[in-house]
Amino acid sequence: MLEHEFWNGVSLFIIVGYVIKKFGPQIGTWLRGEMDKELDTLNAGKKAEVDGAEQGIAMEKKAQWQAEGQTLLFEAKRENVGLQLEAAYRERIMSVYQEVKRRLDYQVAKQEVERNVQQKHMVNWIVSRVQKSITSDQENENIRACIANLKTLAAKA
User: Fold this and answer.
1) How far apart are the first and last CA of the chain?
2) Average pLDDT across the chain, whole number
3) Dist CA 141 CA 147 (whole Å)
4) How much is the pTM?
5) Phi, psi (5° rounding) for residue 114?
6) How far apart are CA 45 and CA 51, in angstroms?
7) Quick count: other Cβ atoms within 10 Å of Cβ 157?
């Protein structure tokens, strides 16, 4: 004895067989399209992950390059500071040189003024002593000798 479900199963297999024969290629094509869409979605996620990783690698390489640039920048700044220190040192040396030169020039000028004052004083002292030592008789005698010299010069001319 066969139950009614057996005939339902047989009819189901017949219907499924007919559907597979009639609509199988179309359903297969549709299912392959859906599967391709699903694979494309999965591959897109995978490609996005790979692109993100590649972008991360590129950013890391750029960061390494920038780090190398930072070392160069630090070296340049260190050298610049050294040059600034040397410039300040040379500026201080020049100001010391100018100050010492100014003081030495002052000392030279001071000595010249002292020597000029001493010479002037010495000349004035000698002239005053000579004038004091000349008597009026010597002065009259010198004047007569000068007049005689002038007369002889006038006669020759």
Assistant:
1) 190
2) 91
3) 10
4) 0.44
5) -60, -45
6) 10
7) 5
What is the tens place of the pLDDT at every residue in 108-155?
999 999 999 999 999 999 999 888 888 888 888 888 999 999 999 988
Residue with tokens 């699903």, as numbered in its chain: 38
The CA–CA distances, whole Å, from 119 to 107, 128, 131 equal: 18, 14, 18
C-beta atoms surrounding 43 within 10 Å: 12
Say how far apart CA 78 and CA 73 lie, in whole Å. 8
State residue 135 phi and psi, 5-degree precision.
-95, 170
Read off the DSSP letter of residue 134: -
Task: Give, as one character, the DSSP assignment of residue 7.
Answer: H
Q: Which amino acid is at 96?
A: V
| Statement: residue 104 has pLDDT above 80 | yes
Give the CA count within 13 Å in the CB-facing half-sphere of 9: 5
Q: Does residue 1 have a pLDDT over 80?
A: no
Residue-by-residue DSSP string for 62-97: HHHHHHHHHHHHHHHHHHHHHHHHHHHHHHHHHHHH
Percent of the chain at pLDDT > 70 equals 98
